[in-house]
Amino acid sequence: xxxxxxxxxxxxxxxxxxxxxxxxxxxxxxxxxxxxxxxxxxxxxxxxxxxxxxxxxxxxxxxxxxxxxxxxxxxxxxxxxxxxxxxxxxxxxxxxxxxxxxxxxxxxxxxxxxxxxxxxxxxxxxxxxxxxxxxxxxxxxxxxxxxxxxxxxxxxxxxxxxxxxxxxxxxxxxxxxxxxxxxxxxxxxxxxxxxxxxxxxxxxxxxxxxxxxxxxxxxxxxxxxxxxxxxxxxxxxxxxxxxxxxxxxxxxxxxxxxxxxxxxxxxxxxxxxxxxxxxxxxxxxxxxxxxxxxxxxxxxxxxxxxxxxxxxxxxxxxxxxxxxxxxxxxxxxxxxxxxxxxxxxxxxxxxxxxxxxxxxxxxxxxxxxxxxxxxxxxxxxxxxxxxxxxxxxxxxxxxxxxxxxxxxxxxxxxxxxxxxxxxxxxxxxxxxxxxxxxxxxxxxxxxxxxxxxxxxxxxxxxxxxxxxxxxxxxxxxxxxxxxxxxxxxxxxxxxxxxxxxxxxxxxxxxxxxxxxxxxxxxxxxxxxxxxxxxxxxxxxxxxxxxxxxxxxxxxxxxxxxxxxxxxxxxxxxxxxxxxxxxxxxxxxxxxxxxxxxxxxxxxxxxxxxxxxxxxxxxxxxxxxxxxxxxxxxxxxxxxx
Amino acid sequence: xxxxxxxxxxxxxxxxxxxxxxxxxxxxxxxxxxxxxxxxxxxxxxxxxxxxxxxxxxxxxxxxxxxxxxxxxxxxxxxxxxxxxxxxxxxxxxxxxxxxxxxxxxxxxxxxxxxxxxxxxxxxxxxxxxxxxxxxxxxxxxxxxxxxxxxxxxxxxxxxxxxxxxxxxxxxxxxxxxxxxxxxxxxxxxxxxxxxxxxxxxxxxxxxxxxxxxxxxxxxxxxxxxxxxxxxxxxxxxxxxxxxxxxxxxxxxx
Lengths: 640, 254
Known about the structure:
- The complex is a heterodimer of chains A (640) and B (254).
- Chain A is of the alpha/beta class and 640 residues long.
- Chain A has 22 helices and 18 strands.
- In chain A, α5 packs across α18 (522-531) and α9 (295-309) runs parallel beside α10 (327-338).
- Chain A is globular, with a radius of gyration of 25 Å.
- In chain B, strands 1, 2, 3, 4, 5, 8, 9 and 10 form an 8-stranded mixed sheet that branches. Chain B has a two-stranded antiparallel ribbon with strand order 6-7.
- In chain B, a hairpin with a 7-residue loop joins β2 and β3 (61-71).
- The longest helix of chain B has 15 residues, at 20-34.
- The chains are: A alpha/beta (640), B alpha+beta (254).
């Protein structure tokens, strides 16, 4: 049975909302397949505004992978702004996909990619507008399966009630496997209904179905255990890892929006995973091992991606791009190819060393040197040992001065505040560093025309990291330290004039902390926030700290816990964590030891260059580090 | 820069929701994909040499948008139009390209007036006809418009050359599906409005109908610019590219 487009009902509403272009689809690279020609239909959602969601790599990759399958279609949907939400409710228009404006409720699956926990309330808006019951237990066979992915899916417990399933890790192969299971189940006449389908997915051991697990609590509020409640469901669900990225060169046909979006560039992942071992970094922990894309595949993707999109910017993305084994040849090869062509290349790397400056110099050959970002993350050498971000003060100053003498006038330094064991003194060191950088920069360049911007955010402890047991720093302490830092930077008026200071207050981070390390009981808080109007929590102008505090105070006492219990409380080694049954491959004893090493200020090497230190990922996931060099080079492009 | 080309293009169907900035970004990318040898400005941040002439407002469809392009290498206009149209999203359609002869006058100066079609779903023909008659009878119709500087008042009447209720919409293959649902009335307004400063837009004409006759469309209207160009004394609009194309003044196009 074909499904009607909602376009005729949506179109008259669009002249009345801001930026209507974001809802019309028709982007270059968008695909509209015949509804009746396929067996399985996915709606893919990025739960934020179109301008943020469209460039998302995860969604673009899965969209293309799924649409390449002849018997599958995938369309995209994004969070609608409150102005359109109100009109849709008034006129009974459901949540729709932008590709062909079909109602989301008509699809077999709704896959939602969570890069951040602050998109949870937007998930509820979309479900509600789609006519899908918020609680998964209230859904029947006519509703899509709601499946979460993305980094936040490594602890989906706070949204467990709203999900039918979650997938941990890389999605390329997972979506194809899920599609196959759904297709077979539909072809067989949907035996056993929704429950049976979910059971089939759970039996793969890499799809987490929250309803098949019971959570028991201790009298003090901690979790006693999480156990499967039916046979055939695994005790632990494993993450997915896509190996050999050269076999998965997506996106091939990037989506090119008509509306203005946050990133307007062709982005290519030059490797996935990171083993630098920064202890605060969830991405670096859950995406192991390192898997490089070869220089020649990257060259081909850039060439075709530019030709297919018309973008004039290329981003070479990864968690630490300067670490690619062929990065030097890659940068100079691409710079040679695109010199004089109005194509600009960027390497959003944050490694603090002279090599990084050299690469940036190569990429900006003949072009503008607008700004360079370095991320020492911690202000003092002591705290940098705690977080395992090993940069000496001398290195940092030398690197920044190299940038100044190489033609950059503006450098951004990124730090965190509220790290475990941090004192006021650790944060105040940032001011000293910034002063030193400017002093040395002025001396080396012989001019006062050098600037640096200190950008600082509050640290949020994340699941599957050594800091998962840590107490989050209370917002008052964070804000106090940020204030002290501001004063310290401006204490020297001459140097302070050359230093910009950007910070975010601690309150939103505390809520991010609640959602990051929360368990299923936090679901009631999310629902209450949403019911009282919470939307777009990742946006300063929409986020209300008070709304979250009030909802937590209203809902949590019933369980004998509170906001502080989830956030500023340190956990001990025996506590069952809400995500312990979700397997990122990291050995929990290794993680605990790394936490103890952090407290003892002991560093950990990177297994990319040194022997394995047994974090557990490769043996438990049957994966291995895949790095070059391949020894190949990028040849000049031959004009067609 | 070795040559200049003038383009006529359309914004159709859902692409009417592109803003001018959206179109400009999409067009620059299309130039790169189509391999058009566009000329760039000098300086630290070179920009492609494109000048847009009086773009239709966001949300308004158009059959007659114009721009001028500088080339750094020659390219036959017909080939250029075809190549660009092929790589632009359906609904952003390049209709024609014309080489600019040396000494040709400014394109913007030729765009003296626009012909607009305003579809008003849910509205009967008679109340619209009464409002139009009242509008025509007025010497001045002051309307308010919200600008960045706040509310300002302008006269919606003087710039309107002709205004009439039309019997048949100009739709079909070129304009896409007509608005509204079958069985619901849809009155259609057809007007020619002179290009003045401050601009009088279709919205302002509708505000004028509200001012003179209390006309309130039940749903937002769908507006299409049908033509743009030199204005004859009889209120017709001529093809603004005719002079460049064959050196002779144009036939009426609207």
